[in-house]
Amino acid sequence: MIAYLIRRILYAIPILLGVNLLTFALFFVVNTPDDMARMQLGIKRVTPEAIEKWKQQRGYDRPLMFNTVASGADKLTETIFWQKSASMFVLDFGYSDDGRSISREIATRMGPSLAIALPSFLIGQLVYISFALLMTMFRATALDMAGVALCVLLMSISTLFYIIGGQFLVSKLWHLVPISGYAGGMEGLRFLVLPIVIGVVGGIGSSSRWYRTIFLEEIGRDYVRTARAKGLSELTVLFRHVLKNAMIPILTGVVVVIPLLFMGSLLTESFFGIPGLGSYTIDAINAQDFSVVRAMVFLGSLLYVVGLILTDISYTLVDPRVRLQ
User: Fold this and answer.
1) Pick from 306, 304, 301: which is nearest to 18 by CA?
2) Sign for the pseudo-dihedral over CA of 66, 71, 76, 82
3) In this structure, are residues 83 and 33 in contact, taking their beta carbons and an 8 Å threshold?
4) Residue 95 bridge partners (DSSP)
5) pTM (2 d.p.)
6) What's the number of domains the chain is made of?
7) Position 88 in a domain
8) Rounded to an integer, what distance in angstroms lies between the CA atom of residue 325 and that of residue 317?
């Protein structure tokens, strides 16, 4: 098992390196530091002196990946790649264009993102799996067909509709919760209720339908027929056998959500005024702050790789055969 996990961790290193190199190429080769300076200073009437000053203030006046003027190790370290990209591997994200520490902003904004994403994830998984098991139990009946139709209907509706509709109905008409904003501590619960509910409702259609497909595939296997032949009830078969053996595909789908738990939802945080990482990324894109955008792209990739490793670990817990690989 240890060798299995070590291999998975070693696989992650070239993936992160590739993401880092690709991100660097997109931000510094396709879009040069001169282009960044012009976008920040204004395309019209920008003097070369102003561009050079902007680059010097932010460390963009160095060579990209190899410094021919320097000597020794400085040929590699005195470059934009080493200063701006390689440092991300030790979680040193540097500073944004307005001079604020990106790492400090991430640490500050991670709490509001988790306050929305974690409850939405946990409650959502409980609702999605329960609804899917209910449709599986009453498969090929009117209840099952109605559930599938409801899932298709919910899948066809944009998340933006849920957000705007929820704000209009719950906040503006019923005045149950604030329409937007955020506060720390217990006071912040009233700001989080509506985003969490919308996050759960928005995922019912796709997630429940996908889980239903997994359960229907498992319910036709030989071990299910054997369990029924032993006289076990349908509830026992579903929850003790089908759900347990469907955990690997379920865990595979859950890993996609892990980065969102930390990175936040771009739309939800922007529309509800939540000062999380999602709104931080949107603000950086609007302000053309490439340092922040680059850091968030790498952080998202890192979290996704960590999610894959955690999924591999969970595989060893639910399927003993994986430990022998």
Assistant:
1) 301
2) negative
3) no
4) 101
5) 0.84
6) 1
7) no
8) 14
Cβ neighbour number for residue 45 with a 10 Å cutoff = 7
What would the pLDDT profile of 56-110 be if each residue is shown by its tens digit?
Answer: 888 888 888 888 888 888 888 889 888 888 888 888 898 887 888 999 999 999 9
At residue 68, what are phi and psi to the nearest 5 degrees?
A: -70, -20
Q: How far is the C-alpha of 166 from the C-alpha of 148, rounded, in Å?
A: 23
60 touches 80 (CB < 8 A): yes
Residue 267 Cα distances to 8, 34, 103, 163, 311, angstroms: 33, 31, 22, 8, 27
- Residue 241 amino acid letter: H
The enclosing H or E element of 264 equals: none
CATH value at residue 190: 1.10.3720.10
Q: Let me know if 194 is exposed, middle or buried by CB neighbors in 10 A (0-12, 13-18, 19+).
A: buried
> What's the domain range around 166?
102-324
45 contact partners, CB below 8 Å, separation of at least 6: none
Least Cα distance to 200 among 109, 275, 268, 280 occurs for 268
